[in-house]
Amino acid sequence: MAEDLSIISGTKAEQYQSLIPQIKALVEGETDLIANLANVVGALKEQFDWFWVGFYIVKQAELVLGPFQGPVACTRIKKGRGVCGASWEQAATLIVPNVEAFPGHIACNSLSKSEIVVPVIRNGEVVAVLDVDSDQLDSFDDTDKTFLETIVSFILFQ
Ligand code: SME
C-alpha cells in the first residue's frame, strides 16, 4: 500500500466510497493496534478535515484517549459519561447534531458543535469508540453512521 492517500471531492458517500478501500488496504496485514488506529484517524482527517477525530480505548473501567488528530482532549471518560461514555454503555452509534443539547456532553473544546460516536464491538463487547467532532452544527447523519461502522469493522483488535 502506498502511503499517499487519494483525496477526492464529491458527495459525502462518494468520499467514503473512495476512502474505504484505501483504509482497508492500510490496516490489512498490520496487526499493531495503535498503528492501525492512527492510520484510520489520519485517513479520515485527511479526507474530511473534521475538527477532531480519534479513538478512545476501553481500559478497565474507563475509556482512555488513543490515537487522534485535532486539539488536545480529555484523557479518561467513565462509562455513561458524555457522548462517548453513552455510546459505550449503549453499544450503539450516537449522532449528536448539537452538543449543547446533549445532557452530560463533555466539552473537551468549546469549538466542537456536533459529534458522532461509533462503538467498536468485538465478541459482543465494546473495546473502543471512534469519536468525530465538527465545528459546525448538524454535520453527521446516517451516511456517516453506516460508513464509519464499516470502517471500524476492518480494525483487528487483539
Ligand atoms: N465530547 C466527548 C468527549 C470527547 S471529545 O469531544 C474529544 C463526549 O461528550 O464524550
Q: Summed up, what is this model?
A:
The protein has 158 residues and is an alpha+beta fold.
Structural class: alpha+beta
For the secondary structure, the number of strands is: 6
How much of the polypeptide forms β-strand, as a percent range?
25-35%
How many helical elements? 4
Regions with little confidence, pLDDT below 50 for 5+ residues: none
Tell me the major beta sheet. Answer: 6 strands, antiparallel
* Domains, number: 1
Q: Supply Rg.
A: 15 Å
How far is the first residue's CA from the last residue's CA? 23 Å
Strand order across the largest sheet: 3-2-1-6-5-4
Mean pLDDT over all positions: 95
Kindly provide the name of the CATH class: Alpha Beta
- Given the C-alpha coordinates, what overall shape results? globular
Q: So, CATH architecture?
A: 2-Layer Sandwich
Structure overview:
The protein has 158 residues and is α+β, with helices and mostly antiparallel strands. The protein has four helices and six strands; from the N terminus they run H-H-E-E-E-H-E-E-E-H. The chain has helices at 12-27, 33-48, 82-90, 142-153, and strands spanning 52-59, 62-69, 76-78, 94-96, 114-122, 125-134. It starts with 11 loop residues before the first helix and ends in a 5-residue tail after the last helix. The mean pLDDT is 95. The structure holds methionine sulfoxide. Methionine sulfoxide is lined by residues 52, 73-74, 77, 82-84, 105-106, 108, 112, 115, 131, 133.
